[in-house]
Design brief:
heterodimer, A: two-stranded antiparallel ribbon, 4 strands, about 70% helix, about 5% strand, B: alpha/beta, 2 domains, six-stranded mixed beta sheet, 10 helices, about 40% helix, about 25% strand
């Protein structure tokens, strides 16, 4: 039971990151491989503000602001000039941005991992199950964020415009929708979610290194593809599925060393059986 | 003299060395139903693409109600008042019929509402949504799509998809509506009905219509003036009835 709840909590971290991947893919039709590194930037932002102010909440706010701004700047400087370029060029640029962010972090903070204390999180006992309060915070905030995002996309005008742009960018522009603005907003939201994921990551593993974003980034990308890239509920489902599987594997001693292999094999199996992902929609490519 | 809604001056575009469209001069008066016809590959859709900002003209310019719009972005041109439909239907297929129209209404100033207001579900959100939906429903009723408003756009029959495209374009409140082969693939009854609808929306929405069509009966029944394009240049401009007797036009269409 504890394992399952830990899995849900890890899963919601993956889901938050996967949402960023999937939304950017759905709307800008590109894979932002620097997305994982936004988590790292968020984590360092929390680390730095914590060192200065000593208050974790301030750190979180600063991280969210910095990551959101980073998302907008990243899109404006690196990706916007490549609108309409070949997908390969955009992909390589994204990898470049990823290394750039890692190198900047290394220049500022050095390559050693540094410990960070976000406060003491006691375990709470519910019946016979004991759960860390960090897990509960992650689960609760993660759920709130996902519900808010779903409401945002479903019920706001901007959300509707986002769906329209993801369906047919050209037609949306001709109906008077400012496509560039919608793409910028998408990046901002995605990176804001990544900042939240950065915080939750620190609650689980309280140390920062310049490459801390790579592995969760890749796992979350896997989650997004498992769920069906471009689909928001798909990213949530994929993330949570992957998190639960990871924790269950880790809790079984025989399987534990093979956890990552099992996760990626799952991706391969799902791609073989249902190439569009669990909740992906079939799309006709226009000729 | 009636007000000129659309005026193009020597409008042209080249792709590399290929001059796709050259020296197109149109003058379309308010509330006119104007036809743009010509054989396949004559450059008709290219003209539409220039007028909506998809392509930037390499020569010449165009004006909407006296304002130069050349070089503006697609959404800016739409805000100024040009809306269009597509030759290959391009609806938002996985959205419901009414949401397609709501996207068209997105930028109308009367429906401004910030995302924060919507997220918090403040009264203004409901008010805006209700008014937008009312407007969308009115538009759908005109096109006889009201009953299907909650179906996915991709599940509509072909003729209704064409109508929905016109409805969505009208939702952006244009001064000039560009219809790219609105009657393509329609049977004679549907075509007849479409002619009535086009006349009706011209009067109801007080707009001007420029349309591309292959169906000459449709054009001669609806438009009073046409421009015939062939190989990217205007072969004939003037009354539609004379066009069909013009030897050059006949030659271009039938060969000679």
């Amino acid at each position: 039971m504890t394992t399952f709840i830990d899995g849900l909590s890890l899963g919601s971290i993956y889901a938050l990151i996967a949402l960023g991947y999937t939304m950017v893919y759905g709307i800008a039709k590109m894979l932002n491989f620097a997305h994982g590194d936004v988590i790292m930037v968020g984590a360092y932002a929390i680390f730095s503000t914590l060192a200065v102010t000593g208050h974790p909440l301030v750190g979180v706010l600063v991280a969210v602001v910095i990551c959101t701004v980073l998302g907008v700047v990243m899109e404006k400087l690196a990706y916007k000039p490549l609108r309409g370029a070949s997908p390969l060029a955009v992909l390589i640029t994204a990898i470049g941005v990823s290394y750039l962010l890692q190198s900047i972090a290394q220049l500022i903070y050095g390559s050693k991992s540094r410990a960070i204390t976000l406060g003491n999180f006691e375990s709470i006992k519910i019946g016979s199950v004991s759960i860390s309060s960090a897990t509960i915070i992650t689960l609760a905030v993660g759920a709130v964020i996902m519900v808010t995002l779903t409401l945002f996309v479903k019920y706001t005008k901007v959300g509707r415009a986002m769906i329209a742009v993801s369906e047919d960018r050209g037609a949306a522009a001709l109906m008077g929708i400012n496509v560039n603005f919608i793409i910028t907003i998408t990046f901002a939201i995605g990176c804001c979610l990544a900042a939240a994921a950065g915080l939750f990551y620190l609650l689980q593993i309280p140390s920062v290194t310049p490459t801390l974003g790579s592995m969760p980034g890749i796992k979350a990308f896997t989650a997004a593809v498992i769920g069906g890239i471009g689909s928001i509920p798909g990213a949530m489902l994929g993330g949570i599925l992957l998190g639960v599987i990871e924790k269950i594997c880790l809790s079984i001693p025989v399987l534990a060393p093979y956890t990552t292999a099992i996760e990626f094999s799952l991706l391969i199996v799902i791609l073989l059986v249902k190439p569009i992902g669990l909740l992906g929609k079939k799309r006709r490519e226009k000729v | 003299m009636a007000e000129i809604v659309l005026e193009t001056k020597d409008l042209g575009i080249s792709f590399g060395g290929l001059k796709a469209v050259q020296n197109v001069n149109l003058k379309i008066e308010k509330n006119q139903l104007y036809g743009l016809i010509g054989p396949n590959g004559a450059g008709k859709t290219t003209v539409f693409n220039m007028l909506t900002g998809v392509y930037k003209p390499t020569t010449g310019t165009f004006y909407l109600c006296g304002e130069e719009l050349k070089g503006k972005s697609q959404e800016a041109i739409n805000h100024k008042g040009i809306a269009r439909t597509f030759q290959n239907i391009r609806l938002f297929n996985n959205m419901s019929v009414i949401r397609n129209v709501l996207v068209g209404l997105h930028n109308q100033p009367e429906f401004k509402c910030s995302p924060v207001t919507s997220m918090l579900k403040l009264p203004k959100h409901y008010d805006t949504e209700v008014r937008m939906r009312e407007r969308a429903k009115e538009i759908l009723k005109i096109f006889d799509l009201y009953e299907e408003r909650n179906n996915l756009a991709c599940n509509l029959p072909y003729g209704k998809q064409r109508k929905l495209e016109i409805a969505r374009a009208l939702a952006t409140n244009p001064k000039l509506l560009l219809l790219d082969e609105p009657a393509a693939g329609m049977n004679p009854n549907e075509t007849e009905e479409l002619m009535k609808t086009v006349r009706f929306i011209r009067d109801e929405f007080d707009i001007t219509v420029l349309l591309i069509e292959h169906d000459l009966k449709f054009v001669s029944g609806l438009c009073d003036e046409v421009t015939v394009l062939n190989f990217g240049t205007a072969l004939y401009q003037g009354k539609v009835n004379d066009a069909l007797n013009d030897p050059e036009v006949v030659k271009a269409y039938i060969g000679g």
